[in-house]
Design brief:
heterodimer, A: about 230 residues, alpha/beta, TIM Barrel, 10 helices, about 40% helix, about 15% strand, globular, B: alpha/beta, 6-stranded mixed sheet, 31 helices, 17 strands
């Protein structure tokens, strides 16, 4: 279609044969099955760089907590090799899931999208109650957290939401800071690849002034805010 | 940025000047040689020729300058060296009209070449003699593109100054020479007479430079009379005083130190067209005492020191490399003359060499933003991160300077070669990436070596498929090889065969220069020429190294990998089938080409399968070259850098087993094949670090980043960490291109909008728009790292 390869999702069974067969790499399977040792072998390649920079590995996704048993194994292995670990999560999981991995995580990157529950359900499809409660518990248990707020014009960049976020976060210990992330369209490609339409394609990225304004607002709550 | 009006003007003049060819030196040299001087020894003749030049060439003082002196009669007027290589009228026309790296030839010059210069030198230049002396096997290999010959139109240079001129004037050098002359033992030393002649020549050459400076002083004083501006009048008087003090006497202050170096630079590069010009070396070390003293006694301020350095910088930019033709133009297609200035590194006692002048120089590099001089930082574990980070701020502005070297590894490399530890610490890198002991070594690069071409010859049982000629050994029909090792052993045989040819040729060429083209002026400046009474070209230096630069290791590794993986391990197809495919340049089977590109392990991805083949290849090349003896009492070593020859070398090779199309460029330096690295810069560094860099005299690694990656402080820190880690893994050098592909493609389409766009090529920066299209394409294709 239009000179580009596309997938008829009704017929595709994800066998991946088309990816193997096309040597021009016109088709790519996103994701593959790996064992813990295979993943660790990858991670360990960069150890000289971690040693030098004080960095480490970040587990992200998607949502890494959806593979919590696998994640836990990996975190344990990293801990055994003295590799610093970071988990980048939406926080949308049962508390027990978080509990099962938390002690092996050096740093959490935790998303905070919307404080108002109805709006949260409208935009993400789920309630934020569990997310907020998990953040509270994680923080109160002493785990280091960097909160990330994607600033999406027209969705969560209103003063009310920012004040609510700021107020909430200021009550929590162990919040190292807040990263305000400028909304971008990089996800569009993922939606297209999945044959889905991208609902927020009309939303623009916030400009530098908007970012700065929001950052200042949040910092009034005593938070360290970084614009990214 | 801070530039005085004077500097702004001089800089603009430098950028605006067109490169022209000057016939002045050729004419003077011809007039000199036409004199019937009777029985004069070769060194004395050359010294007298040098004196004649210095006595008669035009003195150029540009408006507003603080540092004076040009190689030719004007900025960017490049002299020619007919005694080495006499250009034909066709050559002149090519130089005048070619699109890239042209030199304007006025009709008057063309006339003089026609009437005077060509008639005298045709058939009599060193180049003519050189090609007469080379045997058929050498000519066959040279013409096939197996190797290039650095000395076929340029003199061996490849050396760098140490600190001796900051303590000694030319009169002091002459006094030393007199001492040596007086000590010659004509009774017991059979070489006493040769030494006498060489020493006499050096004495004469020293005097010539004093005379050259004197003439500048006189010219400046005559300008004083016509100058109405009292400020400029005072400046001119200062300049005249400087030119009287140096180079006759040791410099007394910062200004004199710079002017002295500059006169010396002009002397070396006018005596002969030395490859890689000449270099001041560890400038921050040499200038520090003058800087501190000047600040202390109030005679110097930081702003004025900066201004002087900026003027100094412009001087380098005014000197395009001597015009090349033929293969030499292709292997070094640039105006850059590769004078390199090193910053940082270690002091002779092994301590941290970074000082206030280092940071001053970094400011100058950033402000001036010129192609020449080349600059580098020598990074030791003893140097602070702040130093690297400061350089990183310049690197991210995208003009490819400074390049980054591993100072600690360089010391190891030099010591491995048998050099004294202190000499090693005072050394560093020059040219592209090669290393030497500054002020004490003649480390001659003799030519590039086309590794993938040797593989092609092997795959054709010694025949060059481009011509059908048998130029190599008959190592067997590869279709009969049962194992990969059979192929690799055959390759090794061919490699050694061609290295033998190259070395045999070098051994003659070295003698040609020693006999016919001694360089008594350069010899003054490099230990131990005076003490030994021997010319720089004849083993006078303390260390005498010859390098052969291996090219295309990425392409080679991927080709060997493809062969091993598909023909011998997986048995995807037979050797016979593959060879047929290569012969047709994949035209009948693009699908298999894609297989070779995308379903084959590649070097640069931290994969031991190809990487171990790389190290075997390295060992074979190392064993073929390292430790061989040259005729100057020194040894051969390897380095791995291409300048621009990977384009030329690629043009003489057909399709290769890694999926590369016929005639297209090879990989450059030790970098992976353009686009073959798919796992990010850390994987590239890990792959490249598997090579044993310490056994080389320099390796070149290019990395390209988009500006976004380095726009924050955090990004800069990451770059510093990347460099530190690569050096911890014993990498030799790394340089960065920070431009996005979109900008480069736009620049290709509309060069006039991008005239100022500078990119890093291979060991130097250049204007993107001055590059030949294939090199432009290659830089665009170089992997763009989108994230760490």
């Amino acid at each position: 279609m239009n000179g580009m390869a596309s997938t008829d999702r009704s017929k595709c069974d994800d066998c991946g044969i088309c990816c193997d067969t096309c040597y021009n790499n016109a088709r790519e399977m996103t994701g593959r099955v790996m064992t813990v040792s295979q993943v660790m072998a990858e991670i360990e390649r960069d150890v000289p760089f971690y040693d030098q920079s004080g960095g480490g590995v970040t587990f992200s996704g998607g949502e890494p907590l959806l593979q919590s048993r696998f994640l836990r194994e990996l975190l344990l292995a990293c801990r055994a090799h003295d590799i610093h670990t970071t988990v980048d999560t939406s926080g949308y999981a049962a508390w027990e899931t978080l509990e099962s991995v938390q002690e092996y995580v050096n740093l959490f990157l935790y998303d905070l999208k919307l404080m108002n529950d109805d709006r949260h359900i409208h935009y993400t499809g789920v309630s934020n109650r569990v997310i907020l409660r998990n953040l509270q518990r994680l923080s109160q248990s002493g785990y280091r957290i960097l909160v990330r707020i994607p600033l999406i014009p027209g969705v969560n960049d209103d003063e009310y939401n920012l004040r609510q976020s700021g107020s909430f976060l200021s009550t929590l210990p162990c919040i190292l800071g807040v990263e305000l992330i400028s909304y971008h369209h990089l996800a569009t490609a993922k939606y297209e690849a999945l044959g889905l339409s991208f609902p927020l394609s009309e939303t623009h990225s916030p400009n530098a002034d908007e970012m700065q304004h929001s950052a200042v607002l949040l910092s009034e709550f005593g938070l360290t805010v970084k614009v990214v | 940025m801070s530039m005085t009006d004077r500097v702004r003007k001089l800089r603009q003049q430098s950028l605006d000047s067109l490169e022209t060819l000057s016939g002045e030196r050729a004419e003077l040299m011809t007039a000199f040689y036409k004199q019937d001087l009777g029985l004069i020894s070769s060194p004395v003749r050359r010294a007298m020729a040098f004196h004649y030049l210095m006595e008669n060439k035009a003195i150029c003082i540009n408006d507003g300058e603080l540092i004076v002196g040009e190689k030719g009669p004007a900025p960017k007027a490049a002299p020619t060296f007919p005694e080495l290589c006499c250009h034909t009228l066709e050559d002149l026309d090519v130089l005048d009209t070619r699109e890239k790296i042209s030199f304007k030839v006025c009709s008057d010059l063309r006339d003089r070449y026609k009437k005077t210069i060509i008639p005298y030198w045709q058939g009599k230049s060193l180049r003519d003699l050189l090609f007469k002396e080379m045997r058929p096997e050498w000519m066959a290999a040279y013409n096939a593109g197996i190797f290039t010959e650095f000395m076929e139109q340029r003199a061996p240079g490849h050396t760098v100054l140490d600190n001796k001129i900051y303590n000694k004037g030319m009169l002091d050098f002459q006094a030393e020479i007199d001492t040596q002359l007086a000590a010659l033992d004509y009774l017991h030393d059979p070489e006493a007479y040769e030494k006498q002649e060489e020493l006499k020549a050096m004495h004469l050459a020293a005097g010539a430079l004093i005379r050259f400076a004197e003439r500048h002083a006189l010219k400046v004083l005559s300008l004083v009379k016509q100058e109405f501006d009292p400020l400029r009048k005072k400046e001119l008087q200062n300049i005249a005083e400087v030119c009287t003090q140096v180079p006759a006497h040791a410099p007394r202050n910062f200004w004199e130190a710079l002017q002295y170096y500059w006169f010396v630079h002009l002397g070396v590069t006018t005596e002969l067209n030395t490859w890689d010009a000449f270099c001041p070396g560890r400038l921050d070390q040499h200038l520090l005492p003058f800087y501190e003293q000047g600040l202390n006694d109030g005679s110097l301020s930081r702003p004025f020191a900066e201004e002087l350095l900026q003027c100094f910088w412009i001087k380098f930019n005014n000197q395009p490399a001597p015009p090349k033709v033929g293969v030499t133009a292709l292997e070094s297609s640039t105006y850059t003359d590769f004078a390199q200035i090193n910053l940082g590194g270690l002091r002779p006692d092994g301590s941290d060499g970074v000082n206030e002048v280092t940071y001053l120089l970094l400011d100058v590099i950033e402000e001036m933003r010129l192609i020449q001089p080349s600059t580098s930082i020598q990074v030791s574990k003893k140097n602070p991160d702040r130093f690297i980070k400061r350089a990183a701020r310049i690197i991210r502005t995208g003009f490819g300077q400074p390049s980054v070297f591993n100072a600690d590894l360089i010391v190891q490399e030099l010591v491995r070669m048998g050099k004294d530890l202190i000499d090693a610490r005072c050394g560093g890198s020059s040219g592209c990436v090669e290393v030497g002991a500054f002020g004490k070594e003649n480390y001659n690069l003799t030519g590039y070596f086309n590794l993938p071409k040797v593989l092609e010859i092997t795959l054709h049982n010694g025949i060059d498929p481009r011509t059908g000629q048998q130029i190599g050994l008959e190592t067997g029909d590869p279709r009969n090889f049962i194992r990969y090792d059979d192929l690799f052993v055959a390759f090794e045989k061919q490699l050694n065969y061609f290295i033998d040819i190259k070395v045999r040729g070098n051994n003659v060429i070295e003698r040609l220069y020693a006999h016919y083209m001694p360089c008594p002026f350069l010899s003054l400046l490099i230990d131990d020429c005076i003490v030994r009474g021997k010319d720089y070209h004849n083993g006078g230096a303390r260390y005498n190294t010859s390098y052969i630069q291996g090219v295309g290791i990425g392409t080679m590794t991927d080709s060997l990998t493809a062969l091993k993986y598909h023909v011998y391990d997986q048995m995807t197809f037979s050797m016979a089938d593959l060879l047929k495919l290569l012969e047709t340049d994949f035209t009948k089977d693009e699908r298999t080409r894609q297989l070779l590109l995308n379903r084959t392990p590649k070097f640069g991805n931290d994969d031991d399968y190809p990487d171990s083949l790389m190290t075997s290849l390295f060992d074979v090349y190392f064993n073929a070259v390292d430790g061989r003896h040259n005729t100057r009492g020194g040894q051969y070593h390897i380095n791995l850098l291409p300048t621009t020859v990977h384009i030329y070398f690629g043009s003489v090779i057909g399709a290769t087993p890694d999926g590369r199309l016929a005639g297209t460029s090879l990989s450059e330096g030790v970098s992976p094949v353009q686009g073959a690295d798919k796992r990010g810069p850390t994987a590239v560094l890990r792959s490249v670090a598997k090579m044993d860099h310490v056994r080389t005299g320099g390796t070149l690694l290019n990395q390209k980043f988009t500006p976004q990656l380095l726009s924050t402080d955090d990004g800069l820190d990451k770059l510093v960490q990347l460099i530190r880690t690569y050096f911890k893994l014993d990498g030799h050098h790394i340089q960065f291109n920070v431009v996005d592909a979109e900008t480069l493609r736009a620049a290709q389409k509309d060069p006039d909008q991008y005239r100022s766009l500078i990119v890093r090529v291979a060991g130097y920066s250049d204007y993107f728009c001055d590059l030949i299209p294939t090199l432009q394409d290659e830089i665009i294709a170089r992997t763009e790292q989108k994230e760490f």
